[in-house]
Amino acid sequence: MAEETNQLRVRLVTPERTLFDHPVTAVELPAKNGYMEALYGHAPLVAELGAGDVTLHGGPDGDQRYNVSWGFAEVLGDRVTILANDALKPEEIDVPRANEQLARGHKEWDEAGDSADAYTEALRVIAEAEAKIASAAEKH
């Protein structure tokens, strides 16, 4: 299938479904250590995903956002594959449930004691909940 020059083929998938599989002009994604942007011709890399929004620019329906949590992204010169543990459109986010998740994360933090692993898990839960709440607040 021939695609326009200077476009990336982006696939966003979770274990349950494929959310996006189209060419775009750019993709922004939340790598574990901060956001990154990929354009056509990007150097190959594999990045661990954090929690936050994937923004797809110039897709068939204009710019689109998806909230993702954890996983990996493979970036090649002409395509990006995002394998997320969880991904939702902003309108699919259950805000009361995300608030409960945030409260649970804070409780885990308070009860972590001397366990570095418990603090790490609490931070993961908090980051995921905060990203969902922020994404839902920005939906258009």
| Series of secondary-structure elements, N-terminal to C-terminal | EEEEEEEHH
What does the radius of gyration come to? Answer: 16 Å
The biggest beta sheet reads: 7 strands, mixed
Overall number of domains: 2
Overall CATH class of the largest domain:
Mainly Beta
Helix content: 25-40%
Q: In CATH terms, what is the architecture of the largest domain? A: Sandwich
For the termini, the CA-CA separation is 32 Å
CATH topology of the largest domain: ATP Synthase, domain 1
Structural class: alpha+beta
Low-confidence stretches: none
Work out the helix count: 2
| Shape annotation | globular
How many E-type strands? 7
β-strand percent reads over 45%
Tell me the CATH superfamily of the largest domain: F0F1 ATP synthase delta/epsilon subunit, N-terminal
Structure description:
With 140 residues, the chain is of the alpha+beta class. The protein has two domains: 8-88, ATP Synthase, domain 1; 92-137. Helix content is 27%, strand content 46%. It has two helices and seven strands. A hairpin with a 4-residue loop joins strand 1 and strand 2 (18-24). The longest helix has 22 residues, at 116-137. The protein starts with 7 loop residues before the first strand and ends with a helix. The mean pLDDT is 91.
